[in-house]
Each structure stands twice: as C-alpha cells, then as structure tokens.
Amino acid sequence: MTDAPLRLPAEWEPQAAVLVAWPHAGTDWAERLAAVESTYVALAAAVTRFEALVVVTADAAVRARAEGLLRGAGADLARVRFVELPYDDTWLRDSGPITLKGADGHFQLTDFRFTGWGGKFGAERDDALVAALVRAGVFGRAAHRRIDWALEGGAIESDGAGTVLTTWRCLHQRHPEQPREAMDAILRDALHAARVLWLDHGYLEGDDTDAHIDTLARFAPGDAIVFQACDDPADPHHAELARMAEELAALRTAGGRPYALHPLPWARPIIDEGRRLAASYANYLVVNGAVLVPAYGDAADDAAARVIAAAHPGREVVQVPCRPLIWQNGSLHCITMQLPAGLAWASAAAI
Q1: Contact 214, 337 (CB under 8 A)
Q2: Do the Cβ atoms of 142 and 343 come closer than 8 Å?
Q3: Which of 104, 108, 143, 215 is the most exposed place for a label (fewest CB within 10 A)?
Q4: How far apart are CA 9 and CA 13, in angstroms?
Q5: Is 52 left (phi over 0), alpha (psi -120 to 50) or beta?
Q6: Contact 202/244 with Cβ under 8 angstroms?
Q7: Helix axes 33-47, 60-73, angle to 10 degrees
Q8: What is an example of a GO molecular function annotated in this UniProt entry (predicted)?
Q9: What is the pTM of this model?
Q10: Residue-range domain boundaries for the chain
C-alpha cells in the first residue's frame, strides 16, 4: 500500500484504454440490437485507432459475434481485449470503475454502489461488475475500494486538479435524506477532491439519469467548460438551460477566474414512439489524440463537432453515429469508461 495522495484525472489526460460492455439479446437493446451494434462497431473502430479497448461480453457467443463485427469493420483487434462477465446493461460510465491515480503510479478503483439510477431498473449484476473485473485480473494490482453510497460516473466531472462538477437534481434524487453539505463532504473524501461545484439547473427530456452532468456540462483543458445550450425560445428546455448557462458563467476556477465557456448547438427534437429523446452533444468521449463526438443525423452535428474541437485543440474529432443509443436514454459517453494511463496493461503490446 502507498501513502501517495490520489486524485481523479481529467478525461483528457493520457489513457490506457476505454472500457465498454457489448449489447446482446439479453439486454434492453434486444428490440433494436442490430442498430445499436452498428454504433458500438463505429465506436470500437474509432477508439482502436488511438488506444486499447476492453470489451466485456456476457458469454463466448456474444464475444464471437462482437469479434466478427469488429473484424468486418476493420477495427484493430490487436488493441482489443475481451473479458467474459455477467452484466445487466451496457452503461459502463455509471457501473464501471472511477479510477483515482497517485503520483507514484498507484491506482484505486473506486466502486460506488450502483442502484440502476435510483432503483429505476434492476442492477444487481451491474453493481457487482467492478469487483468481478478486479477478480478477473483486468486491472493488475490496483487497489479496490468499495463505497456503499450511490453514485454513477456520469454524475461527476473532474478537471484533474481537485475540482469536481455535479448536479443537485441527480444527487438529491439518489440521497433525498442528505443535505448538500453532507454529500459535498462525501464526494470530496471519496474522490480526493478539494472542492465540489454544484449546478441547480439543467435537464433533458428523455434522460432517466436525473440530469447527469455528462449530458449537460463538461470540463475541458485550460479552465474551460463545454455545455449544452438551447437557442430555441419555443423549446421547453430553453429557460432551464439558460439558467444553467448563467450558473456556469458565475462559477470560478480555483484561482478565482471565470471559466471559458463553449456553448453547444441544439439538435432539433427527435421523437421516437411518441417520446422525445435526449440528444445531447455534451455526451462526447475524449481519448488519446482525439475526441469522439456524438452525431444524431441533425443539421447541428457538424457545428457541435467544431465547438468541441475548439475546446480540445490539437485532437482529431471523430463523429460517431449515436441515434440508436438515445432510444435507451443515453449516448456516447454513457456507454464508455476511460482507464487512465499506467493502469495494468497500459500498452497495446501487453494486451
């Protein structure tokens, strides 16, 4: 064990790999499995251009199908590692490990209780996933810390320097009996953070996470925040997202300066089977040398990619078709979890 201080790295810091779970007929994707597999294939092909990909599969048949689809799409299979474990669903941003890193190369896999977004869905196998990955040896000698307090990875953003950003709406839903001060202290202790910034406004119809921060506002390098805006006064989101934008403008860095703000364009409403889907451009994924950006087949797709490119200079921008994902109320960032560089088999040669 080590006494070196831990921190939660920013997503734009060097990574070892991205972790995903493959959709299959035993998940909620069954009704539209082929469509969502096309998104996973595009995601995997993009990720493996830049770094390794860990794919959790439910069994050998699911692995064989995933491997065949990836090979057919030209994904770099030398950078893919498969792990067979049971899971309920594929939203690994929320059920996967939140990895803290020490200056001496020590890692801690922080394993919060996963409740299926406040008990909305069954989650017993997903709640056990981090421990199962540890037992499978995926993370080498990294420490594993279980915390019996509900939190999903999509509910927090880190700037890598001690500041965490989250939303009151989500955390209050998970812990209605706890005051903000108590939750603030728990987050600072568990994530080794110096401070927590809270947003009281912002939501998206079709999002059943209760306003996860990764659908609304994201830290970017150089004390910047990328956020989902709404420029349509007739849209029911307009007032709430405008108030969120005001909150973001009022936030200050640890050094007392305002953040540089990058508003994202607003996609036209996407209605599916009578319900509106949450098409957030803020739900992008940063990988080594690139940013993978959700595309919804909307006129705003390219403009959103340009905003994200400006906020993450020097990285290639790759659009990934994500319309199939929002049918199940999430998007690109929600199905992935990045693993920081140095964790276990950090190089492709070790996979």
Answers
A1: no
A2: yes
A3: 104
A4: 7
A5: beta
A6: yes
A7: 60
A8: agmatine deiminase activity
A9: 0.96
A10: 6-350
